[in-house]
Each structure stands twice: as C-alpha cells, then as structure tokens.
Design brief:
The chain is of the alpha+beta class. It contains four helices and four strands, in the order αααββββα. The protein has a four-stranded antiparallel β-sheet. β2 and β3 form a beta hairpin. The longest helix is centred in the last third of the chain and has 52 residues. The protein starts with a helix and ends with a helix.
C-alpha cells in the first residue's frame, strides 16, 4: 500500500507542479514589458486632454443608449492620441472615448449591446472554467500534501519502532 501511495504522491506532485510553474512563469513576463506589450510606453500629453472623465462616461452611456455598468476608466495613449478606455462590468469589452474630441470608438465591429452581452457571457464562462480548474488543482495539491505527510510520518514512526 505504501508504494502505491508513494506513486500517487509523485504523480500528483507532477500534475500540480506543471500548472503552477506555467502560472508563475507567465507572471514573470510582466516584469519584462517589452516582451509582453511590444516594448513601447507612450506618455500622455495632458494638454491634449479636453474631455473630463465624467463626460467620457456620459458619452459612452449615450453611445450605448443606456447607463453602462463601467467598472474602470483608464486614460491612455492609443495611436498617438489620448483616449479613455471604459471597461464594462462582468468582463464586458471596452469602449474608447477620444479625450480630445469626445468621439466614442467601438472596439468591436458589433454594437455596444452585443459587446456587453458577449463580454458578460465570456466572463461567466472564464470564471466557471477557471474556478473548476483552480478547484481541481487545489484538491489535487491537498491530496498530494496529505500523501506526503502520510509517507513522512510512516517513515519516521517506522524508524522509531525499529530502534526500540
């Protein structure tokens, strides 16, 4: 029985270690911005920003025809122009609002309603799939840790019993 627990412990350790290693190494890429985003960091020319953040949110809602559930508004430079990026709630796609003219730029070829509903559906699928994967890996890690504890305890108690 101990040899089968040992084999189970080894395999579970490998199964759990591979995704954790991939997760950690992908996070390390963000320490190297040139690798992830092309290496170009553009500064925002504050003199070109003429639209207030509240006006940008209002224009995005007017574009959609209803009050959008915006969770983040970021000022950034895109193609040399300052733009606000309004990110919708529950993983919806974003709208860009030109900070000079106030023009709303749809980041998708579809309408704003389709963008929000598709984004919500994608977020839900990602959340459920991610939860299942993380839960499965967590469960396997717990089983691996428990089998490792069992193997260590039986080894130490076995040595103690042999000495006496």
């Amino acid at each position: 029985m101990r040899s089968s627990i040992y084999r189970l412990h080894i395999w579970l350790g490998l199964i759990v270690a591979v995704p954790v290693l991939a997760w950690a190494s992908s996070g390390l890429l963000y320490a190297l911005p040139r690798v992830v985003e092309g290496g170009k960091v553009e500064t925002i020319d504050a003199t070109r920003v003429r639209i207030l953040p509240s006006d940008a949110l209002n224009r995005a809602s007017e574009f959609a025809g209803r009050k959008l559930p915006t969770t983040a508004l970021t000022l950034l430079t895109r193609e040399g122009r300052p733009v606000y990026q309004a990110v919708g709630g529950l993983g919806a796609d974003s709208l860009l609002i030109d900070a000079e003219t106030g023009t709303v730029i749809n980041t998708s070829a579809r309408g704003a309603d389709a963008v929000l509903s598709t984004g919500t559906l994608l977020f839900f699928c990602w959340f459920v799939a991610g939860s299942v994967v993380v839960g499965a890996i967590g469960t396997l890690a717990c089983i691996s840790a428990a089998s490792g504890l069992y193997l260590n305890l039986t080894m130490w108690f076995g040595r103690l019993l042999r000495r006496n």
